[in-house]
Every structure is written in structure tokens, then in C-alpha cells.
Design a protein that fits this description.
heterodimer, A: 118 residues, mainly beta, 53% strand, B: mainly beta, six-stranded mixed β-sheet, 48% strand
């Protein structure tokens, strides 16, 4: 059975940092394209970042230079290091698998809430 | 970036109604267009991929069509479990942009 379990969310002050984790079972993270998607309260979905199976990474403009996507192959876990957090980063963050062929995000985690507030 | 625009933003419908949601891309995304259903407090779930292919396990009352820049999602006979928010997403290029969502509410 495929499972993606996010953790690491919480309350952080503006300017602070947080690292999100997405522990995966049922498939190998390093062999797949993996994404972070976020959803601000009451808003739509916003794609944040992707890491390709080959290791290339991409980010939405608003997080470039502040967020870093990575993976630990030995733990089969995806990460999102979030630095210099802003109030507008407040959202539920989901990890999701991309089939890598231009297809959909077919597996999603349950999400973890990040709140940036003083 | 490819902008995705859904309409309407929300709609009210009754059980048994036929519902159509549209999604327009700011540039061609070929058939790299996906539709997700999301219920409150839950992660999105894939319904349709590659513009018109039904994901395994999704009821046949869901269908979709389109290519290039204009796409539609149709629910042929709305069921109680279909009241949710629907999102389109292009997977043609990076960033993999989403529409703003369409909330389907009970009339």
C-alpha cells in the first residue's frame, strides 16, 4: 500500500525556519518525481517545488532562494527546508508524487499545517 | 508561467443535476490537463488525467474533454458524495500550475 506521511509543520515566527518531512512507503522516492504543493486557508492549490528522479529541482518564484527540496534515499523521505518564512507562507503543505511523464499527481500525503505568525 | 482559470468559482446544484466546470490555460498545454476532487480537510484526489482519461476507480458519471487551452469537466448526474471542490492542473510544464478551484455546493 502506498502511503505518504508529512510531518514537521507548526507555528513559527516570521523570519524563522521549519523543515517538513514526507515519509513514503510503497514506492521509492529516488525513482520518482516528487512535489510539494501548498494550500493557504480558504484558497486554492499552489505548486511549490519538484525534485526529479535525476536530482534536478525547481521552485515557484515566491519561494526561490528561501526553500530547498531534498530527499534522503536511505530513509525514503522527501524534505522541504523552509527559511525566511513569511506570513504568506501560511498553508497546509502536501507532498505528492508526479508520474514523471507529464501525468497527474497520483499519490498525496494528508498534509501538514504551517502557520507563520508572531 | 501558464495561468489556469476555472469557471465558475462556485456553483449550487441539486442531486441528479448535470454539472460542467471549465478550465482555460493561458497557453497551450496540449492534453496535459488533470482534474482533482478535494473534500474539506482532505488531500486532493485525482479524477481525470491527460484531459479525458478516467482514473481507475472513479465513477463513470465523471467525464472530461478538451485540448490546447480549453477544457471541461462534466458530472452527468450529481451525487451527494460529489459535493466538493474541483481543481484543474496543467502538467505540461514547470511550474505545474493549478486553477483556483470550483466549489460545488448543495442547492
Amino acid at each position: 500500500e502506498v502511503q505518504l506521511v508529512e510531518s514537521g509543520g507548526g507555528l513559527v515566527q516570521p523570519g524563522g525556519s521549519l523543515r517538513l518531512s514526507c515519509a513514503v512507503s510503497g514506492f521509492t522516492v529516488r525513482s520518482n518525481y516528487m512535489n510539494w504543493v501548498r494550500q493557504a486557508p480558504g484558497k486554492g492549490l499552489e505548486w511549490v517545488s519538484i525534485i526529479y528522479s535525476g536530482g534536478a529541482t525547481y521552485y515557484t518564484d515566491s519561494v526561490k532562494g528561501r526553500f530547498i527540496i531534498s530527499r534522503d534515499n536511505s530513509k525514503n523521505t522527501l524534505y522541504l527546508q523552509m527559511n525566511s518564512l513569511r506570513a504568506e507562507d501560511t498553508a497546509v503543505y502536501y507532498c505528492a508524487r508526479d508520474d514523471g511523464q507529464g501525468g497527474p499527481f497520483d499519490y498525496w500525503g494528508q498534509g501538514t499545517l504551517v502557520t507563520v505568525s508572531s | 508561467d501558464t495561468q489556469m482559470t476555472q469557471s465558475p468559482s462556485s456553483l449550487s446544484a441539486s442531486v441528479g443535476d448535470r454539472v460542467t466546470i471549465t478550465c482555460r490555460a493561458s497557453q497551450s498545454v496540449s492534453n496535459y490537463l488533470n482534474w482533482y476532487q478535494q473534500k474539506p480537510g482532505k488531500a486532493p484526489k485525482i479524477l481525470i488525467y491527460s484531459a479525458s482519461s478516467l482514473q481507475s476507480g472513479v465513477p463513470s458519471r465523471f467525464s472530461a474533454s478538451g485540448s490546447g487551452t480549453d477544457f471541461t469537466l462534466t458530472i452527468s448526474s450529481l451525487q451527494p458524495e460529489d459535493f466538493a471542490t474541483y481543481h484543474c492542473q496543467q502538467s505540461y510544464n514547470i511550474p505545474r500550475t493549478f486553477g483556483q478551484g470550483t466549489k460545488v455546493e448543495i442547492k
